[in-house]
Structures are given as structure tokens and as C-alpha cells.
Amino acid sequence: MRMGAFLVWSLMAIAALLAVPAVSHTNALTTFSLMASSAAFVGMGIAQFMAARPPFLETLFGGLDRVYHFHRRIGISVLILILIHYFLKPDFKGLALTSGLNQLAASAGKYAFYSFVVLLVLSIVKIVPRTKIEIPYHLWRYTHRLIGLLFVLVAFHQMFIKRPYDGTALLAAYLNAFAALGILSYAYTQLLPWLRTRGYEIFDVARHDGATVIAARPLGRPLRAKPGQFGFLRVLKSGLREPHPFTIAGIDANGIVRFAIKPLGDYTQALREGVAVGDRLKLEGGYGRFNHRRGGKKQIWLAGGIGVTPFLAMAAHLTGDEGQEIHMVYCVRDRREAIGLETFQKQAERLGNFSFVLHDSSADGRLDATKLAAGSAIDPAEADLWFCGPPALREAIVKGLKDIGKGPRRVEFEQFQFR
């Protein structure tokens, strides 16, 4: 378990444990109910903090992609815990600041509970069960933002509702600290579009078969990103203002960035059709820890389709003195979909530590572990495998390599789905 996950579960467990001495004079059912609600509240506060994307979380969790995946697990845990608290109704004679505040807090808690259940289910469920109906990204994002407002209601509820302990109890101070953390974090996330974004202007748009390649120059301070990282992009244009995460396909010393975006959904298709030279962008980043410099001395890079983008940025910055030997395999369904071939081929010709192979599935057949190992300039068993592409391809290749006794030393990849 990564350090980040251990810390989160520990902080939630501490809340549950602090509830025991605070309410143990009541009864077992009430104790268990308030243990669940206390842990859930701390989980909510931490989830709000994680949504603010503080940079140090990437180190604790191994990248922003892992942060968001764990954020989802917190949501599932909170949903279970608040359901326990709801159905195991506490029964005690408690303390209240005033009867008016207590009644208001009770109402806030009731409405927040029902709203939380609905929004958490919408956040967790991507596709309606037994159907092909997918909850649209913009609806998911809009409803997800409302969770912060509900957290404010829940914070009011826990602070002023009648309870079997007074404000001097350690549990009260602990919960109040996470209330402040969550509320401040939510306020900060609403300011992110102004605090942490950089202004850019598009100066080139190329619509290739495999992707739309956008090049933009900074209008002020440039984006701070390393090759292999991703950023959140939004176009200041009707229908394209929603921020989406995309890997940065290239970043120059002068701040110019390039994105290669495949039209896979409604937004990316609208982007392909609507974006134009002169459009203004807002960019935030860079995020992620997908950078070959963290890897071993021997590496195999495997890109599947549009998963080539981080490798395109990393390959362009290779100088030959990295102390690493790298073999790149770019797998496409058809050669016409390939982008950035000139960069890979030029670097392979220029550098002694970089080799490149394009695997055209329409001509060479489906790529499998045996073909990968046979065509690689590096023994997979002696190398790290850096992968970006469809998860099914990664799973098949890794399993296949292990089956033939060529399992890589480690496998690096990003979980590039944030919902």
C-alpha cells in the first residue's frame, strides 16, 4: 500500500477510534453509528483536500492519476459509512447549543444525506447498469462540484447537531479540523481556474487521421511541465470551455506546447471540429510521474495508438547521455494513424541509446508478447516496461511476457481515467 493510502485510512480510523471514548457511555448501536459518521466526515474532508490537487500528493500516491483513483475509493467508503450511520440511528440524550440550531442542523443533515447518496452514486457509476447509457462527463463534473457545497452542510450538521459529547472532547476538535480543511479546500478548488492556469494562444492546428495536433504559445508565464506529464486543457470558446486532462505531446524551452488529441468522445470530436488558429487556451499542469528518468538503465517503451503522446515528448528531449538504453515500440492499427514518426526516426538515427520500431497491425498482425520480445533490441526480462495505451493491450503483453519467461523488472503506466 502506498504511503498516501495508508495515511488516509489511518486518519479515518483515528476518527472512528476517537468516537469510542466520546460516546461509549451511550450504547453499542449509537457508538458504532457515530464511529461510522466520524470516519465518513474525515473521509469527506480529505476528498475535498485531494480535489485541490496539492503537488505533494503525487509523491505520496505515485501520480495524480493514482490520487484520483484513490479519491474514488474514498467516495465509495464514505457512501457505505453514511448509509451505516443513517440506518443505525443513534439513540442518546445529548447536548445542543440551542434548540433552533439543533433543528436546523438536523434538517441540513437530512437533506445533505439524500443529496450525497445521489451525487456519490452519480460520481461512482459511469455507465447505467445493464444498459449502454453512459453518464455524460459534463453532467458528472457539474454534479461532482456540488459535493463541496454538501460538505459545508454536513460540517454545519456535525458542529451544531445534538451530540453525546461537548465541544471540548478530542473528537470534536478532530472533526472541526477536518471541517476547516474541507471547506477551505473546496473554496480553493473554485478559484483554481484563476490561480493555477496559464494563458496560451493556438498558432497551429493539424488534423491527422490518428489525432488532432494543437500547438500553442504562452501569452504570459509558461506552463511548468516535464516530458511525459499531462495537463488540464480548456479552450475559451463556446462548447469547449470544459477542462479535460490530456498528455502533453511536446513542450519546448520557450514554453510552446503541443497536444495530440484523438477524437474518441463528444468533447474531443467537438474539439477537432471547432478549434482554430487564434483560439485562446487555459492550461493547468503539469501533473503525473510518467517520466523515464525515474526508471532503470534498460527500458522498453510500448505505445498503443494515441498512447504515444508521452513518449513523443520524452523522445524529443533525449540527448544520449541519460545513461539509459531505450527501445521504443509504437503499435498502431494502421500506419496512417501514426503521429510523430519523424521525431522517433530522427532520434533513433542520431542517438546510440535509442532504437525505434513501428508495429503496423494491419500489415504485421496483432502485437503479442512473443513478437515484442523477438523484435526488441533489449531483453524484456532485463528491462522496465513503460506503457501507455489500452489497458487490454498492457495486460495481454505483461501476461504474455511472464508466460514466456520474459517478465519485465517493473511495469510503469498511468491510470488515465479520472471518473
Structural overview:
It is a single chain. This protein has 13 helices and 11 strands. It is α/β, with parallel strands linked by helices and 419 residues long. The chain has 3 domains: 3-195, Four Helix Bundle (Hemerythrin (Met), subunit A), CATH 1.20.120; 198-287, Translation factors (Elongation Factor Tu (Ef-tu), domain 3); 292-412, Nucleotide-binding domain of ferredoxin-NADP reductase (FNR) module (Rossmann fold, 3-Layer(aba) Sandwich), CATH 3.40.50.80. Strands 1-2-5-4-3-6 form a 6-stranded antiparallel beta barrel. α4 (64-87) packs across α5 and α6 (137-160) runs antiparallel to α7 (170-195). The longest helix has 26 residues, at 99-124. The model has no long low-confidence stretch (mean pLDDT 88).
Topology:
Blueprint: H1 3-23, H2 28-51, H3 56-61, H4 64-87, H5 99-124, H6 137-160, H7 170-195, E1 198-207, E2 212-218, E3 230-235, E4 244-251, E5 257-261, H8 266-274, E6 280-287, E7 298-304, H9 309-316, E8 325-332, H10 341-350, E9 354-360, H11 361-364, H12 369-375, E10 384-388, H13 391-403, E11 410-412
Parallel strand pairs: 7-8, 7-10, 8-9, 10-11
Antiparallel strand pairs: 1-2, 1-6, 2-5, 3-4, 3-6, 4-5
Helix pairs in contact: 1-2, 1-7, 2-4, 2-6, 2-7, 4-5, 5-6, 6-7, 12-13
